[in-house]
């Protein structure tokens, strides 16, 4: 049986691993990715200074060496107008089954006036830039970061914490990471002294995890400032903090910060709760964010109080969630921004699409940690193998399979060997500056490196 996995993030690699780690059905798997390099958000999302989490790459990388697994990078699935070089119909003609694991990497919007002013960016774009994603807008951040003095980060999840930490750390604190050199150089020119982290609800409702949150209080040149009135819990929040240990720990961290004496450090991280942005104001660029004070309703939602303040900000990073997008020819639930399925079997109007499966963020939405994708991928593969054994899959019809098709279309496919060459080139580049690795950010340079 031949299976295509679309996307080489954790869910794709875990799905491939589950497919080749069983004996019931002999399987060959091609992991296809639009980028010349594998591992999705583990490479282009997880913060570069979280070195141990990023090392999950080494575990995922071992799967690419397993018999029966191939990596086909620089191959976009979709219609030509979307940059696609193969369509879903092509994949169905080349494989018995297709597992869709293409993630959910678009940003959600705030929907407030001024959101599109210059200087207001999505966390997805800022994260892509500092991780060295080939599609990142380097010029934008090289213009915005050195000319900003005060930043607002909207959101209270781990991504918002990552963004705040990167903006507040000294370059020395980031020096051991694999960020591209131009990112270090730009961050070194930053004059940002104040970063405001805004949450529209209280500390008991924040989605971040304690370990990540605590790091904000341990930075060399930045101190955390929390207003005491922001961390007073209403009855409902107090109950949640008492019954849910993770929430209780988060609340304790911010309450301790609220009691800290000012330390006089050159940078300040203002963590604000019960604060929602209602407008961004500016001229040729965002200059201020109008923030409305909120209160919690009995069901834990935020409602405006009408009381507002204006915070100076020449950089605003919106981190209010990721969302999936539709792939041409694949059913899509545009309300939930996921592919509809039952146990990983893709469904159109409640009817199973033969040979089509889904796993990871595009299956369940952007939630959970990297490991969550493993269980998720295993569920999907279990369904796929059961269908194979029940004879529900159609054999491929394309002569020569995907290799002939890609060759005919002149696609410069990056194989596992090509990825190994890129890997070696990044390690060599890092060594020139005493680092383990430096990310190569340019697509052409990546393709050159793939060819040795
Ligand atoms: C900023 C950020 C930080 C995070 N930090 C952590 C952390 O510290 N710890 C943790 O446990 N989790 C973290 N996560 C969550 C973790 O990254 C996700 O759970 C995981 O990456 C989701 O895996 P996935 O395979 O579904 O999607 P992705 O990792 O997004 O992989 C999808 C892949 O599909 C490819 N693709 C997309 N479209 C196409 C197409 N048309 N054709 C071919 N290929 C395509 C993409 O290039 C990508 O490689 C973080 C997420 C983000 C966004």
List strands and helices in order, with pairings.
Elements: E1 2-6, H1 10-20, E2 28-32, H2 40-44, H3 51-54, H4 56-64, E3 69-72, H5 88-94, E4 97-100, E5 106-107, E6 120-122, H6 123-131, H7 138-144, E7 150-154, H8 158-168, H9 171-174, H10 181-188, E8 194-198, H11 210-215, E9 222-226, H12 235-243, H13 245-259, E10 267-272, E11 275-282, E12 286-296, E13 302-312, E14 315-318, E15 322-323, E16 341-342, E17 345-348, E18 351-358, H14 361-364, H15 372-389, H16 401-408, H17 416-431, H18 443-450
Parallel strand pairs: 1-2, 1-4, 2-3, 4-18, 6-14, 7-8, 7-14, 8-10, 9-10
Antiparallel strand pairs: 5-15, 11-12, 12-13, 16-17, 17-18
Helix pairs in contact: 1-15, 12-13, 17-18
Flavin-adenine dinucleotide is lined by residues 6-12, 32-35, 40-42, 45-46, 50, 53, 76-78, 101-103, 105, 127, 159, 162, 322, 327, 360-361, 368-370, 373.
List keywords for this structure.
seven-stranded mixed beta sheet; alpha/beta; 18 helices; FAD/NAD(P)-binding domain; binds flavin-adenine dinucleotide; 2 domains; globular; Rossmann fold; 452 residues
How would you describe this protein?
- It is a single chain.
- By secondary structure, this protein is of the alpha/beta class.
- The protein has two domains: 2-105 and 324-414, Rossmann fold; 108-320, 3-Layer(bba) Sandwich (FAD/NAD(P)-binding domain), CATH 3.50.50.60.
- The chain is 35% helix and 21% strand.
- The protein is built from 18 helices and 18 strands.
- The chain has helices at 10-20, 40-44, 51-54, 56-64, 88-94, 123-131, 138-144, 158-168, 171-174, 181-188, 210-215, 235-243, 245-259, 361-364, 372-389, 401-408, 416-431, 443-450; strands at 2-6, 28-32, 69-72, 97-100, 106-107, 120-122, 150-154, 194-198, 222-226, 267-272, 275-282, 286-296, 302-312, 315-318, 322-323, 341-342, 345-348, 351-358.
- The strands form four sheets. The chain has a seven-stranded mixed β-sheet with strand order 3-2-1-4-18-17-16, with helices on both faces.
- β16 (341-342) and β17 (345-348) form a beta hairpin.
- α1 crosses α15 (372-389), α12 crosses α13 (245-259) and α17 (416-431) packs across α18.
- The longest helix has 18 residues, at 372-389.
- It is globular.
- Bound molecules: flavin-adenine dinucleotide (FAD).
- The site of flavin-adenine dinucleotide (FAD) has 36 residues, from α1, α2 and α8.
């Amino acid at each position: 049986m031949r299976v295509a996995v679309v996307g080489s993030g954790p869910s794709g690699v875990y799905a491939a691993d589950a497919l080749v780690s069983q004996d019931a059905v002999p399987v060959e798997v091609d992991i296809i990715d639009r980028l010349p390099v594998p591992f999705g958000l583990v490479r282009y999302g997880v913060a570069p200074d979280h070195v141990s989490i990023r090392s999950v790459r080494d575990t995922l990388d071992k799967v690419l060496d397993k018999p029966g697994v191939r990596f086909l990078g620089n191959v976009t699935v979709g219609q030509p107008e979307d940059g696609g070089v193969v369509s879903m119909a092509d994949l169905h003609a080349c494989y018995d089954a297709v597992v869709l694991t293409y993630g959910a990497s678009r940003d959600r919007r705030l929907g407030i006036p001024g959101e599109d002013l210059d200087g207001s960016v999505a966390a997805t774009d800022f994260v892509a830039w500092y991780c060295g994603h080939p599609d990142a807008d380097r010029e934008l951040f090289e213009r915005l970061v050195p000319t900003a003095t005060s930043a607002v980060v909207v959101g209270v999840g781990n991504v918002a914490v990552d963004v705040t930490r990167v903006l507040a750390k000294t370059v020395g604190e980031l020096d051991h990471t694999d960020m591209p050199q131009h990112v270090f150089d730009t961050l070194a020119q930053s004059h940002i002294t104040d970063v405001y982290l805004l949450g529209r609800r209280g500390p008991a409702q924040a989605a971040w995890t304690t370990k990540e949150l605590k790091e904000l209080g341990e930075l060399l040149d930045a101190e955390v400032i929390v207003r005491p009135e922001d961390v007073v819990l209403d009855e409902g929040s107090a109950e949640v903090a008492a019954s849910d240990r993770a929430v209780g720990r988060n609340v304790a961290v911010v309450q301790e910060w609220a009691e800290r004496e000012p330390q006089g450090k050159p940078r300040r991280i203002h963590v604000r709760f019960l604060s929602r942005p209602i407008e961004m104001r500016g001229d040729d660029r965002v200059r201020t964010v109008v923030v409305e004070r909120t209160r919690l309703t009995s069901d834990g939602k935020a409602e405006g109080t009408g009381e507002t303040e204006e915070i100076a900000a020449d950089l605003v990073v919106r981190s209010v969630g990721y969302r999936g997008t539709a792939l041409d020819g694949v059913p899509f639930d545009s309300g939930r921004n996921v592919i509809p399925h039952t146990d990983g079997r893709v469904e159109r109007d409640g009817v199973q699409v033969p040979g089509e499966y889904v796993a990871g963020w595009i299956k369940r939405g952007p939630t959970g940690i990297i490991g969550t994708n493993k269980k998720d991928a295993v569920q999907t593969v279990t369904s796929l193998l059961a269908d194979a054994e029940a004879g529900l899959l159609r054999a491929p019809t394309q002569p020569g399979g995907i290799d002939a098709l890609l060759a005919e279309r002149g696609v410069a496919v990056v194989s596992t060997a090509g990825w190994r060459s890129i890997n070696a080139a990044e390690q060599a580049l890092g060594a020139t500056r005493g680092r383990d690795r430096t990310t190569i950010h340019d697509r052409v340079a990546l393709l050159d490196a793939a060819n040795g």
